[in-house]
Amino acid sequence: MPGSVSTALDRARPMSGSTLLNKVPAITATFWLIKVLSTTIGETFADYLAVDVGLGTAATDGAMVTLLAVALVAQLRAKRLVPWLYWLTVVLVSIVGTQITDFFTDTLGVSLYVSTAAFSVVLAVVFTLWWRQERTLAITAIDTPRRERYYWGAILTTFALGTAGGDLATEALSLGFRNGALIFGGLILAVWLGRRLGLDAVLAFWIAYVLTRPLGASLGDLLTQDRDFGGLGLGASRTSLLFLGVIIALVAREQVNANRHGIRAKGEAPAVSPHRDYVWAAAAAVAVVAAAFVLAPAPTPAAAAPAAGTGADAGKGRHVNPLEADATSPIGDLRPFAVIVDDVAGRTKAGDLAGATARIKDLEVAWDNGEAAMKPASPDDWHSLDSAIDGALTALRATPPTKQSSLSALTALQSTIGALEKKQ
User: Fold this and answer.
1) Which of 41, 238, 242, 340 could cross-link 363 (Cys pair, CB 3.0–4.6 Å)?
2) Which of 18, 153, 142, 41 lies closest to 87, judged by CA?
3) What is the mean pLDDT of residues 233-246?
4) Closest CA to 36 of 246, 309, 287, 224
């Protein structure tokens, strides 16, 4: 790209539409913290609605897309930055961006290699068109309707790309969510160091913006996953509410500052000193960590008791992570899931379809809670079992469900579990 993008920004003039004040917040420590928290919301909130609340994937996807459309229209029609509206749109974009990638991967069966490459191409096209028409990609000059449309197109694509690229890295390399958090956090730190050493500000921003998506997802998995899989066991609901509460507090502060001081024009000093902003961001981050440990459930007696391990670990009284030490399947210990499936099958055979439908919700929640730890171990085997579980869920949640179709789906699910247990 010829010349400096930052220099082009200084001489760029609005080329179409009415001139607006910059519609994007200043890039501060608070901005990045809210961004990371919003990406985690994108990972956990949709799962909470679809699984814990029981709306299902289709209803959740439709609701989130509708809410995003309403928020985006309101954001585009505003003549100035409204912090609460801007960040509401970002949170919804995060959720929908995740859903887009999940739809391609889980529903259509598109390879993560393909979706990552496709979203990279789409983002390159958006940036190319944006640059050709505006001669800048800087977010400090989102001051015309056309620039704002390009901006939100790029934001949605970065969330989808970050989801696909992050899943590809953790699954293809079997990183898991704990290593993923460390690696993506380290990459963002490297971008920050590169910026300090002269890396172009616009390039650094967009690289970091993509990387915060898998970082937020990894942190979300670290909080939501059961203790058996190395997480804190907060679950999707507690994690979503915790992060949403912190986001609301930080955005409320941004809204108060905007109402009190107005929106800063380009070149003006920020209304709040950077040092004070660092203090706010650090305090919010500490509050998140402290609340996470306070809200995390204590280990259950079953989890604290000696687990049935293999080899040298058996009988020593030490808790064994089923993913790391249990040899029952390539993706970990499937016995807790098999117990639920057998119970559901028993109720179905007895003609208690209502009880079976209620009980299979436990399987759905448990399977969702173990995804981040089990899926990277063997993505193909995970998808095979995931499809069988979806088949059982669909059969029992039909309107109305039938005993024959439900038993057929449950038998197929039991066979899949048995086949995976024999593979190890």
Assistant:
1) 340
2) 41
3) 86
4) 246
CA dihedral 256, 257, 263, 269 (to 10 degrees): 180
Instruction: Please state, in angstroms and rounded to a whole number, the distance separating the CA atoms of residues 334 and 328.
Output: 7
Which letter does DSSP use for residue 104 in this model? I
Kindly tell me if the per-residue pLDDT of 4 is higher than 60. no
Rounded-to-integer distance, Cα 250 and Cα 242, Å = 13
Average pLDDT over residues 363-385: 83
Res 20: pLDDT:
60
**Is 314 or 165 the better-scoring residue by pLDDT?**
165
Q: How many of the other CB atoms lie within 10 Å of CB of 13?
A: 10
Beta-carbon count within 10 A of 81 CB: 22
Domain boundaries, the chain: 16-295, 320-423
Residues 6+ apart with CB under 8 A from 44: 220, 224, 236, 239, 240, 243
The answer to whether 393 touches 346, Cβ cutoff 8 Å, is no
Q: Which long-range contacts (CB under 8 A, 24 or more apart) does 320-325 make?
A: 321/228, 321/229, 321/230, 322/228, 322/229, 323/228, 323/229, 323/230, 323/373, 323/374, 323/377
User: How high is the pLDDT of residue 347?
Assistant: 92
For residues 148-157, average pLDDT: 95
Burial class (CB in 10 A: 0-12, 13-18, 19+), 271: middle
Secondary structure in 3-state letters for 284-298? HHHHHHHHHHHHCCC
Task: Look up residue 194 and give its two tokens.
Answer: 């590169």
Q: How far apart are CA 416 and CA 411, in angstroms?
A: 9
Degrees (nearest 5) of the Cα angle 301, 305, 306?
A: 165
- Exposed, middle or buried by CB within 10 Å (0-12, 13-18, 19+), for 61? buried
Query: 187: which residues sit within 8 A by CB, 6+ positions away?
Result: 211
